[in-house]
């Protein structure tokens, strides 16, 4: 299979249309069998549930080319499960987990020419999503849905790759205490758009959101969870019912404990203790683990000792081990790597 002629080393995190996408329709209480299509457009009723009341959720995972040339995905079963939870939280019919995995295989295999080569620095981002497609005017769930999945080759989520980020403590909230923060609802991201645009306008890369109830505890950013490293080399990561349970964060916790022999604390993290940490990183599928150099809290700067020039040593170790597992250089825990059969 010949790869597409893309400038792999220089693609950013943006949409590049690929050849095939997967679609399955839900109607009369059942999902149809699902097909791949070349048509990248969707025609919808003007009154579709997604357009009127934002009834939509999504997922994000990646496919990689390993050192020995296989195409693999990382823990897709966890994305399938999380999407079931997201669907339930939005009163949508869950897409069966085994069918999600089959759709990942079909969509990635059909676009194998777009999976970036090993060592290129790029990966193939997979975007499963579903939405209410039938007309809804009273506030209620739609009766018909589409589950879709497309892929797009991507480079680093944050411009500049491993350059430490500057983030600010946001005055806006991304999720309510008993709302939808723990599922991947499109509406959470709509909530964050004004905050991210104004953060960028003020020169920040991202927002640190606090718990909306007390505004004293660290939650997450718009698209990634936090990992901190203490000065005595422990990992600390915030625990909260209103943050997205990141698969990358859960994987890094395992890597820290089992591969690096580190202690890990998953607990509430107060904003007031952040100044005492040695390193800070943002973790997620898109972010992998991106180092944070500085957090600005209304004019007060928290500067991590790792600085603004380079990634901290523990963050680097976590990054190297996780990407080593994903790209087949380091042996993975049972069930983490899912090979895509390509004809
Ligand atoms: N938090 C938010 C709000 C996200 O959008 C994401 C991205 O999926 C994450 C965290 C990281 O989750 P994961 O590691 O499963 O990609
Ligand atoms: C991901 O990491 O997959 C995300 O969904 C984060 C962002 C692109 C929304």
Record keyword descriptors for this entry.
343 residues; alpha+beta; nine-stranded antiparallel beta sheet; 22% helix; 26% strand; binds pyridoxal-5'-phosphate; binds 2-OXO-4-methylpentanoic acid
Overview of this protein structure:
By secondary structure, this protein is an alpha+beta fold. The protein contains six helices and 17 strands. Strands 1, 2, 3, 4, 5, 6, 7, 8 and 17 form a nine-stranded antiparallel β-sheet that branches. Strands 9, 10, 11, 12, 13, 14, 15 and 16 form an eight-stranded mixed β-sheet that branches. Strand 5 (61-65) and strand 6 form a beta hairpin. The longest helix is centred in the middle third of the chain and has 16 residues, at 186-201. It binds pyridoxal-5'-phosphate and 2-OXO-4-methylpentanoic acid (COI). Residues 60, 223, 284-286 line the site of 2-OXO-4-methylpentanoic acid (COI).
Structural class computed from helices and strand pairing: alpha+beta
Q: Could you give the order of the helices and strands?
A: EEEHEEEHHEEEHEEEHEEEEHE
Structure annotation, total helices: 6
Q: Hetero groups bound?
A: pyridoxal-5'-phosphate, 2-OXO-4-methylpentanoic acid
User: Residue share in helices?
Assistant: 10-25%
What's the shape?
A: globular
Parts with pLDDT < 50 across at least 5 consecutive residues: none
The fraction of residues in strands falls at: 25-35%
From the alpha carbons, calculate the radius of gyration and give it in angstroms. 20 Å
Strand count, sense and barrel status of the largest sheet are: 9 strands, antiparallel
Mean pLDDT: 96
How far is the first residue's CA from the last residue's CA?
9 Å
**Number of strand elements:** 17
């Amino acid at each position: 299979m010949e790869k597409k002629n893309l400038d792999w080393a220089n693609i950013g995190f943006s949409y590049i249309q690929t050849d095939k996408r997967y679609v399955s329709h839900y109607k009369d209480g059942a999902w149809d069998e699902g097909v791949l299509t070349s048509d990248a457009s969707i025609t919808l009723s003007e009154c579709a549930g997604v357009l009127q009341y934002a009834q939509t959720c999504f997922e994000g995972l990646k496919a990689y080319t390993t050192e020995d040339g296989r195409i693999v995905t990382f823990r897709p079963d966890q994305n399938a499960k999380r999407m079931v939870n997201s669907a339930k939280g939005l009163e949508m019919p869950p897409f069966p987990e085994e069918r999600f995995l089959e759709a990942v295989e079909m969509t990635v295999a059909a676009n194998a020419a777009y999976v970036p080569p090993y060592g290129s620095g790029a990966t193939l981002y997979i975007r499963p999503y579903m939405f209410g497609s039938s007309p809804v005017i009273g506030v209620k769930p739609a009766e018909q849905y589409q589950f879709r999945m497309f892929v797009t080759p991507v480079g680093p989520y944050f411009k500049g790759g491993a350059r430490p980020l500057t983030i600010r403590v946001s005055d806006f909230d991304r999720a309510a205490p008993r709302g939808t923060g723990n599922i991947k609802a499109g509406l959470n991201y709509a909530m964050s758009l004004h905050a991210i645009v104004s953060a960028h306008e003020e020169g920040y890369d991202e927002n640190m959101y606090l718990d909306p109830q007390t505004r004293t505890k660290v939650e997450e950013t718009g698209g990634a969870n936090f990992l901190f490293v203490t000065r005595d080399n422990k990992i600390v990561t915030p625990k909260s019912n209103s943050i997205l349970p990141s698969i990358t964060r859960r994987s890094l916790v395992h890597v820290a404990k089992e591969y690096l022999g580190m202690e890990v604390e998953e607990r509430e993290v107060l904003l007031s203790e952040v100044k005492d940490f040695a390193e800070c990183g943002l973790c997620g599928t898109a972010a992998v683990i991106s180092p944070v150099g500085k957090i600005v809290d209304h004019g007060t700067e928290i500067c991590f000792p790792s600085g603004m020039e380079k990634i901290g040593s523990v963050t680097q170790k976590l990054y190297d081990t996780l990407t080593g597992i994903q790209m087949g250089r380091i042996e993975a825990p049972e069930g983490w790597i899912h090979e895509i059969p390509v004809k």
